[in-house]
Amino acid sequence: MDLTLNEDQEAFAESIDDALARKYTAEFRGKAAASDVGWDEKLFSTLAEIGASALTIDEEHDGLDAGAGEVYAALYALGQNAAIEPFLDGVYLPSWLLSASGSAPDEVLSALAAGEAIAAVAHSEPGRVWDAAPATTATGDGSKVTLSGTKTAVAHADQAKWLLVTASGDAGFGVYLVNGDAEGITRTDGRTADWTRVSRVTFEGTPATLLGSAGDQGRRAFDAAVARARIAVLAEAVGLMDRASKVTVDYLKSRKQFGVTLSTFQALVHRAADLYAEVELARSVALWATASLERDAQTDDTDVDATADDAFVYIAQAARVVAEEVVQLHGGIGMTFETPISHYAARLTSIEQSYGGVAAARRRVLKSGSPLTAPTVVRS
Amino acid sequence: MDLTLNEDQEAFAESIDDALARKYTAEFRGKAAASDVGWDEKLFSTLAEIGASALTIDEEHDGLDAGAGEVYAALYALGQNAAIEPFLDGVYLPSWLLSASGSAPDEVLSALAAGEAIAAVAHSEPGRVWDAAPATTATGDGSKVTLSGTKTAVAHADQAKWLLVTASGDAGFGVYLVNGDAEGITRTDGRTADWTRVSRVTFEGTPATLLGSAGDQGRRAFDAAVARARIAVLAEAVGLMDRASKVTVDYLKSRKQFGVTLSTFQALVHRAADLYAEVELARSVALWATASLERDAQTDDTDVDATADDAFVYIAQAARVVAEEVVQLHGGIGMTFETPISHYAARLTSIEQSYGGVAAARRRVLKSGSPLTAPTVVRS
Amino acid sequence: MDLEYTPEEQRFRDELRTVFYEKVPAEIRERVVRGQISREDIVASQRILHEHGLAVPHWPTQWGGKKWTATQQNIYASELQRAAVPTPLAFNVSMVGPIIAEFGSQEQKEKFLPATANLDIWWSQGFSEPEAGSDLAGLKTTAIRDGDEYVINGQKTWTTLGQYGDWMFLLARTNPGAERKQQGISFILVDMKTPGIERRPIKLIDGSVEVNEFFFDDVRVPVSNLVGEENKGWTYAKFLLGNERNGIAQVGTSQRVFAELVDAAKETDVEEGTLADDPDFRSRLHTAKMRLLALEATQLRVAGASADGKPDPASSLLKLEGTRLLQSLTALRLDAGGTDSVLVGDTEGTDGTPVGLSSEHAASTAALQYLNMRKLSIFGGSNEIQRGVIAKAVLGL
Amino acid sequence: MDLEYTPEEQRFRDELRTVFYEKVPAEIRERVVRGQISREDIVASQRILHEHGLAVPHWPTQWGGKKWTATQQNIYASELQRAAVPTPLAFNVSMVGPIIAEFGSQEQKEKFLPATANLDIWWSQGFSEPEAGSDLAGLKTTAIRDGDEYVINGQKTWTTLGQYGDWMFLLARTNPGAERKQQGISFILVDMKTPGIERRPIKLIDGSVEVNEFFFDDVRVPVSNLVGEENKGWTYAKFLLGNERNGIAQVGTSQRVFAELVDAAKETDVEEGTLADDPDFRSRLHTAKMRLLALEATQLRVAGASADGKPDPASSLLKLEGTRLLQSLTALRLDAGGTDSVLVGDTEGTDGTPVGLSSEHAASTAALQYLNMRKLSIFGGSNEIQRGVIAKAVLGL
Q: Which of D335, D331, D325, D326 is nearest to D268 (CA)?
């Protein structure tokens, strides 16, 4: 029974945190978000060099073939700095989809592992819930498939060398590989509330290749990859909450009002204590979900979706409480773009709505057997 | 637009509060609850003399034929003192059921109005939800009806001269009048968590008389009377919350820890402010429900059930928060039988579960159109 | 007890509605709903209201006021919010206007009040400073008399919409040596075109520029710009606090947002049926509904109970719960939209706020509004300050 | 990362389970579930545990201890609570026992430890006083030396189960003139049969008598009853604080209550189907479930991280959330029972608590337990104190 990262994983998280913390101010983040690519290319390369891009890819493609613990470490450290470099949506989630398919072109996996390119996953459609079958259609078969439809909230589509697009074809649900510069693609670029670059992408007769198999099996593989991403993003959330609450405690110690520091006001101090409890409890859930994922990888137990939903619902709620409290405890300054705390709050807010959002996750949970199943961390 | 009691109603509430406050200590309440009848007979008579028992009964039976405002005033003042004299369950609710039936014996209403006797309403059955058809059966018709079955949580059944018993007969749901000393009645006496006397009552071939008509119409009349009681008990809840939070504020001002009064601790002071907000908002909802009831009595609008459920759900939630906070802010002393605050908390806890309880009320509300209907106090 | 307005009050409300819904352009009100109004919208709307005598109803009648009852004032605020009409600029109509009307010279009244009511002058507020937020009396900006002028030095911050300000009313120390920190403060009017004033816009996390910082470096203003007596500024500032009971609970706004939320839920398809069928969402809607009802009823009780217009500690209760509720409604809208709600387009609205990527969905600006609405419980006296006021003024703690 | 116990740990757990489920009588465990255990139940259960070496595992091995790992201690506490086995009397096994073992004389150890472990002596705690609750160091009871005796005067309160106490360990001022209030306090053992002690039972709102007040009037105890050094009592008392990390979160208890709640929901018919189908109730269950999972995982993290047995501020976090969660589970059970849950019978249980009127329903004692469980966030260091500890010890505030 061990719910902690091992020494190597801790060291990996620290090396990422070190690389980020030296640069990441609110100003740096703002500039990176506003740059041509939407993140800091140098920093992305630095992190790729210490292995961040290779984690989830097998050794055949020069990856590190690491486990859920390493992904936790990376995303936790990224979260601690509210970093916007696109490892989860641009590398890890695409790599899981590609690997699961068994039919991914080698050069794609190798490029992702090397940090030379990113891919983008295009699944959300405007006004359509995550679990619905895609309205985007795949027509034709074999090497002659084309896609038509509109995807939204596609993270970093403007920089992606490849798009992994979900669509409904004759055989049902499928994930299709599309070149970023393929014909028939129209993009409207925008951003999320946390300043991550996203696009609406329209496909009209765009050539595509089916990854793996279509139909229910394809959907299950897609859902399992997304469940991994849901658990991974919770590590980022815990990193964000951890650092945001520490920054807030520091603020209470230094900021003066009425001639004394805010830490003199017991009402605020008690709220900081509640915040600490909130973060530590959320950390435990994220670690539990990560450990479950590692365990599932070793056994035949594939309850990843349920684990991801359970954990997501809990941590999204904690993320909201923490995001709101850290801003409130900062007062007006916590609302401004120039202080880190607002970026932490904004990113936490986006995470709550990621991969279909918390309300949809709650609906799935409440319809499942989860509410009537006793919780237990220990599996044996 | 007026959501306040008028001067007469205010004066009425004050006269009841005066009569009670002079006597009601935790010790007095404890003794009254442990006495033979389960309340203080002298105090009951005093209150009856100033009109408390006659409120809901028409002038023909020497009642005052007063409205919902007067009932609010009486129950608010009873609540302020955590009084256990049984006006709501022993007089008002029975009188509403009797009056609605159009077939109540004159002597019953007159005795209730005069404060000479009380009646008890027997509807709950063990392990059966409030809205279910009674498992208790009514057999026979005309003057030969007998009842068989078991009722539970019958408030003050041991002192009631009459029982108003719900049962299922050939024509469906009915409310039946039964003499307290009729044959075939077995009682097991107990109490509620707030020390109100209640009994489990078993009927075996007990002679009874149908009140009003049986069937759906009878059930609707029963539900409407209970809805009035639900709204009335909220006035009691607000009285309890009001006085309990004031007692708590006084405690914070006087109790010393670490050499200073508790009011020095800002964390506690801010919670007292939140408590104040909770009570005032709950008061507004109780007054709104009361005003709605008064208005409905003058118009054809009979949305009493929905109003009662909406208000009950809101105030039961507030009651829980307030009951828990006033005890917590008192510390250990708030748990003891010898301090008033614990009696306030216990009574609030019972009210949350009265007339079927808050969970059932929530289920009704969520299945109704209420969640999708805009709230509006002003009707025009 | 009575749940209906009197026939006069109903007539009054209907007249207001006619102006709010028929005279104020629908496009402006639509932009209010989306949280994307511009300076021009605010000016246009206030001028239309003023044209109909509805911009400064609580001012003295001589300057356009109406002598309304507390209930009428309450109806006005609620209906305005519900109709999504931009609230007349608070700095003009609720702050500097009443102060000048009460304490200003006849010359000041004539010069400023008509232009203030018609928004010909856009006023900014110069109260907060970096080291004087919740602790306003800790302000450090000085206005030292030099002949017929005051020379102002210092820094003001959190100046909402200060980028549009023609004039600023500010608090500054005319007697820095005063014993208590509340003493020696004066209330001074400053033409923002005066040399020596520098503005630094403060971008908020949602991308909007709503607040600004101002630096005053030897800014010289005529002594005639002093309002009332020198060193009495703190008294005038306090006159404002608690003066804004009507509308502070934002009941009308929350009612509008609630209705939008229900409409959106009915139109949002989920896995089975629409969001309006989702038990969890219904439960949260009902909680919000009853809180809103409690808030409205409380506001009506308070409005009825103290018609004398004096500051009432109940306004702290209304602000506390009113802001919490409106914030939780924006959170509900965020959750309703799911992934759609965090999307923001790249085209910018007139005030710099980006427009939603998928503007056909109510969700499109949900995350931005959610983040922006965090300000409600901070600005204008934080919720912590309001709890303190309740504890002290109501509970005697 | 690993979610499984080692084979040794699993074997260890299975051995414990055998004792807890097969040796401790089911009737006793059933009474724990209903919140109606008696003195006899506690004694019987502890003796059975002691017989199997499971009453005082964390004591020195010489006196019956086991040298378990942190994980084993954690398994022990969780399994004990889950099985609804009465926890060995904390005053004996977690408080006075470890103190005597660490600081007592050899004579004291031999006289008291075996009897304490076997519950032949029932100990009471004499720490709190009417004016010294959260502020324990403010205690006023004196123990003035007179020859070979201490003469004790004063008052102790909140003495849990003091009605059964054979002996009391108390804190008293042996040097009332000490400079700081934490100084001059000694840790003294008192035979409750000594003349001059008067008990006043304190009835709680649920009707139970769990706590008591004790008055000491010239109570003379031999100097040999002093534990450790005179005037060092505060050090020994602090030794206890935070010592009780295992079990403090009551994870096992909450797991048991959660399972009971699910079973009850499945058996409770509502308007349509059972309570287990009610979306609102499912939602509340799921919230509780995930909080419980978060708590258990946190406890496991903490247990693993600091195996040295030293006081850990994390115990404040575990107590804070552990009590809040268990309290909210009792509230859920209350709501599940509806009107049934407030019923109490007139026959009294062995310890004075009335038995449920409808004991066939889990609901029958729900309201009593709900009210009784309010103590969790008050006694043993209130949640306010725990927040203070976290702020100071963890956050440095």
A: D335
